[in-house]
Structures are given as structure tokens and as C-alpha cells.
UniProtKB/TrEMBL annotation:
Domain of life: Eukaryota
Gene: LOC115885116
UniProt protein name: Serine protease inhibitor dipetalogastin
Alphabetical UniProt keywords: Disulfide bond, Membrane, Protease inhibitor, Serine protease inhibitor, Transmembrane, Transmembrane helix
InterPro entries for the chain: Kazal_dom (IPR002350), Kazal_dom_sf (IPR036058), Prot_Inhib_GrowthFact_Antg (IPR050653)
Transmembrane residue ranges: 7-27
PANTHER family named among the record's database cross-references: FOLLISTATIN-RELATED, GH09510P
Residues in Kazal-like domain copies: 32-84, 85-135, 286-344, 345-397, 398-445, 446-498
One of the record's GO cellular component terms: extracellular region
SUPFAM superfamilies with a match to the protein in the record: Kazal-type serine protease inhibitors (SSF100895)
An annotated Gene Ontology molecular function: serine-type endopeptidase inhibitor activity
Length: 509
């Protein structure tokens, strides 16, 4: 540990803590020094959504928070309201300039998620959808009739969560829904498209029967396709080499006898050890079980529920839920392959060449993250990719299809120009469609208001009038201005008791 320019090896001992206290460090500062795992570089697009730190500041992601607060003892805020203006937050932020546009419910396009989070803090608005706002009414979209001559600029990740072959196809298939192009990281089969892969040589077998240098290469080379890792035995069998017998195809008939591998993992049997390490350049052998005792104790402490939401592991085994897969990851390094039950690696049934458009079928969520018009369309459009139907909550436009929405009256205006009781009902009633929240004025533009009466948004962005009264936002001030026949105007931003300078808004338009 470096303290005051000197390196002190406290070794985690009580003696080291006492020594630091003698030097005048508080327990809180010592804890910060201990807990500071400081990342030096945060890769763009790799660390998730903006976060609120325990210091009340908004950071673009958790990596940036750790990097910028290294050694200061700042952690994720346990109070979700800490970064809200209504709770007294100053809405300070440390956002990057990465261009990753998102649309707010105020109808404005923000530079990135972090910039939007600042306005969420200030005004209490919300995320409408990923990608830029399409301020042209969805009903008036210019939709292509045919895409045969259009450039193949895909794969494209749409704001509805689906992947399309081109921009033209996206517009053709979602005509009238206001779907726009978004960053590839937001769709399941495109999030690894531009990933920089390390040159680690751990061969991986893809569900397409090909062997790749590693899993990262497999995903980046199959941008827009549903290709996942399976046991190496499958690829070896496909190649029909003389060494195929050295890779067990499965270990179903083997007697379960926990085996410790030289890689530190615990396998159900020696057969499973060979099957999961087949093709690995670094040879893994059976060793004395005593060397795996620590891992055994650690993994057994992971308690899981009996919830049924199946996922498939890279060992081609179906796990009842994500937690049970995480336990398998702990024991033997199994990774997530795809949502839903594991499928046979060879599709036996022929792919449908035609789907009856007249059948009124429910939209389905595929294990590739895309939503399809029906089960038939899923099989037809993903022929050969081993995509299966999974529970609707795993896809963006079907997530709330079966939701039991509350009866709270938080009225919202949908992009279909209809008013809904709340956002949940809007999403549920438009199962499979890309319908999002837009400013209420779009839905009420058809109404005529007489005199000074009008409907104002409920967000809190106080302004002080020249009558020394504080108004919730400029809309309410405008009503008073109308009533007083222009006698009351804006004096300053903020409340009358605490005037503030206008905070620069972080939107593109």
C-alpha cells in the first residue's frame, strides 16, 4: 500500500491497520485505500448504464465511477433517490462525450444515456427509447415498398431490439412504428460485432459446426447471427477426423463421481472433464480432490431458487434458471450459451417456406433476442440458426405482454397518438409493436383550449415569477402570465428563495 509516497505492506493484518491509525488515517480512509480497485482504462460501450454514486454524482458507468473516485470510498448509491432534484440533488455529473443518442420522454434527443440521466435527475423525465427521437409522427413515415435495390448496410440494431439485414428492411418491416437505428451494443446478436478480441488461444466450437480461435472471435465473425458455443466434440465429429473418438460426445451414461481437474474446476466425472476440455491447448488432467476443496465450499454457498426460466449452458445442458447456471460456472467454468432449453444441434424438421398471414397469432420472442410475428415466422426467418421460442419477458417489445399492470393514473401519450392510463398498459396493449412515450402535447394537439386554460406537464423545474411566486415549471408561469395579461413574467430560474443559473441542457435537438 502506498501512503504519503511510501509503500507500506499492511498485508491485511491488524498491525497494518493500527500503524495507519497512528499515522493519522481514519477507519473510513483506510477502508477506501483497501477497497480501491482502480481501473486505468474503461472501454467505451462495455460497462453498462449510468450510475449514481454515494457522493451524489452521476457517472457514465460503474467503471468510470471507480476510475474517477479511486481511493475515495465512493460506491453505488443504495438510495435510488439520491440523484434526483426533488430530493435536493444538484444533479452534478461526469458524463463522457460518446455519441450514442437516446430519446427522452420530453421528445428531445440526448447525446448519450448519461446526459439523459442528468435531465432525469433535474426534471423527472424518463427514457422513451434507444436511438434518436423521430419527431415526425409515426403515421406519416416515408416507408419503402421494396428493398431489392437498397444497399445492404446491415446488420442494423433497431430501437425495438430487433436486428435487420439493412436500414431499408428495418423501415419496410416496421412501417408506422417509428423504429430508428441504434448502437449495435443494444441488440443480442450484434453487441459483439466490433469487439476487439484478445489473442488467447482457447479454441471454441460454434453451433454452426466450425472451430474458432476463441469465443470472442466466434461472436464477432458471426455479427447478426445466432451462433453460440457448444462442446468441442460436436465440431470434431463434424470434421470426421480419426481423433474424434478422443472427444466424448456426452456423458449421460457415466456414473457421477466428482473429479478435480488441474485447472481447479470440479467436474461430475472424468468423462465430463475430457468432454469440456477437448480441444483445449492446455491439457487438463485429473488431480487429487483435496486441491478443489476450497472451490467446493465456495460453490456450495451459492443458494438458488426453483424458479423456472431455462437457459442453455456451453456444455449443451439446460439449466432451470440463471442462478443454477451460475453455480455450474463456479464448479466447472460453464458459460451462458443462449436463452431457453438447449436444442438438438441438427434441425431435423424442414423450415417452412410459407406462413399464413391471415392467422391471428401472437408475436413470439426468439432466443436470438428478436421478436417474430408468429412461431412460423421464427422458424422460417431463422432457418439453420437453431433459434427457439423463449418467454416474452426476454425481448424488448414483448417484455410486458403478460404484465398485470396497476391501475395508477400516470397518463402517457403513445407514439400511436393515443393516451394510456400508464406506460405499462401502453406496452401491454401493443404487444410486439414499437410504441413509446412521446410528449403529451402530441395527443392533445387536437383539443382546443379557450382563454388561459391548458394542460401542463408535471415535471418539477421551478421558476420564479416577477410576482415573487415560485412556479413548478415555465408552463404554469405562462398560464399566470396569460391571466395577468402579461404582468407576471419570469424573474429567474430556480425557486425565488434559491435562484440558480440555467443548467446547460445536454441534448442534440
Amino acid at each position: 500500500m502506498r501512503v504519503g509516497g511510501k509503500i507500506i505492506n499492511s498485508g491485511g493484518s491488524m498491525m497494518g491497520v493500527v500503524f495507519l491509525i497512528i499515522l493519522g488515517y481514519s477507519i473510513k480512509e483506510i477502508s477506501a485505500l483497501r477497497d480501491s480497485s482502480c481501473p486505468r482504462i474503461c472501454q467505451p460501450n462495455a460497462y453498462g448504464d449510468p450510475v449514481c454514486g454515494s457522493d451524489g454524482i452521476i457517472y457514465s458507468n460503474i467503471c468510470e465511477m471507480k476510475k474517477k473516485t479511486c481511493g475515495k470510498g465512493v460506491s453505488l448509491s443504495s438510495d435510488p433517490g439520491l440523484c434526483q432534484r426533488s430530493s435536493g440533488s444538484r444533479c452534478d455529473h461526469k458524463c463522457g462525450s460518446e455519441k450514442d443518442p437516446v430519446c427522452g420522454t420530453d421528445g428531445r434527443t440526448y447525446l448519450n444515456r448519461c446526459m439523459l440521466q442528468v435531465e432525469i435527475c433535474r426534471l423527472g423525465i424518463a427514457l422513451s427509447h434507444l436511438g434518436p427521437c423521430n419527431n415526425i409522427s409515426a403515421h406519416r413515415e416515408n416507408c419503402p415498398v421494396d428493398c431489392r435495390q437498397a444497399p445492404l448496410d446491415g446488420p442494423i440494431c433497431g430501437s425495438d431490439g430487433n436486428v435487420y439485414k439493412s436500414t431499408c428492411q428495418m423501415k419496410l418491416l416496421t412501417c408506422g412504428q417509428g423504429v430508428v437505428k441504434t448502437n449495435k451494443k443494444y441488440c443480442q446478436t450484434t453487441r459483439h460485432c466490433r469487439e476487439s478480441c484478445w489473442r488467447n488461444a482457447r479454441p471454441a466450437c460454434g453451433s454452426d459446426g466450425k472451430i474458432y480461435t476463441n469465443v470472442c472471435k466466434m461472436k464477432s465473425k458471426n455479427c447478426g447471427k445466432h451462433v453460440f458455443e457448444v462442446p468441442m466434440a460436436y465440431c470434431v465429429a463434424q470434421e470426421r477426423t480419426t481423433s474424434s473418438s478422443s472427444c466424448p460426445m456426452d456423458c449421460e451414461d457415466e456414473v457421477e463421481k466428482p473429479t478435480c481437474g488441474s485447472d481447479g474446476y470440479i467436474y461430475k466425472s472424468e468423462c465430463e472433464l475430457k468432454m469440456l476440455n477437448c480441444g483445449n491447448i492446455r491439457r487438463v488432467a485429473k488431480v487429487d480432490f483435496e486441491k478443489c476443496k476450497n472451490r467446493l465450499n465456495k460453490c456450495l454457498n451459492l443458494k438458488c431458487s426453483e424458479d423456472l426460466d431455462p437457459v442453455c449452458g456451453t456444455d449443451a445442458k439446460t439449466y432451470q434458471n440463471q442462478c443454477l447456471l451460475s453455480r455450474a460456472t463456479c464448479f466447472k467454468g460453464i458459460q451462458f450459451a443462449h436463452l431457453g432449453n438447449c436444442t438438438e444441434l441438427k434441425e431435423e424438421a424442414p423450415c417452412p417456406g410459407y406462413c399464413d398471414e391471415l392467422l391471428d397469432e401472437e408475436p413470439v420472442c426468439g432466443s436470438d433476442g428478436n421478436v417474430y410475428r408468429s412461431s412460423c415466422h421464427l422458424k422460417k426467418e431463422t432457418c439453420g440458426q437453431l433459434v427457439i421460442e423463449v418467454p416474452p419477458q426476454h425481448c424488448r417489445t414483448t417484455a410486458l405482454c403478460n404484465e398485470d399492470c396497476s391501475e395508477d393514473r400516470n397518463f402517457v401519450c403513445g407514439s400511436d397518438n393515443k393516451i394510456y392510463r400508464n406506460e405499462c398498459e401502453m406496452k401491454r396493449d401493443n404487444c410486439g409493436k414499437h410504441v413509446f412515450v412521446v410528449p403529451m402535447k402530441r395527443c392533445i394537439s387536437g383539443f382546443l383550449f379557450k382563454g388561459c386554460q391548458k394542460i401542463c406537464p408535471t415535471y418539477y423545474d421551478p421558476v420564479c415569477g416577477t410576482d415573487n411566486m415560485t412556479y413548478s415549471n415555465t408552463c404554469f408561469l405562462e398560464i399566470e402570465n396569460c391571466r395577468s395579461r402579461s404582468l407576471v413574467t419570469m424573474k429567474n430560474m430556480g425557486t425565488c428563495s434559491e435562484p440558480v443559473n440555467e443548467i446547460p441542457k445536454n441534448y442534440l435537438y
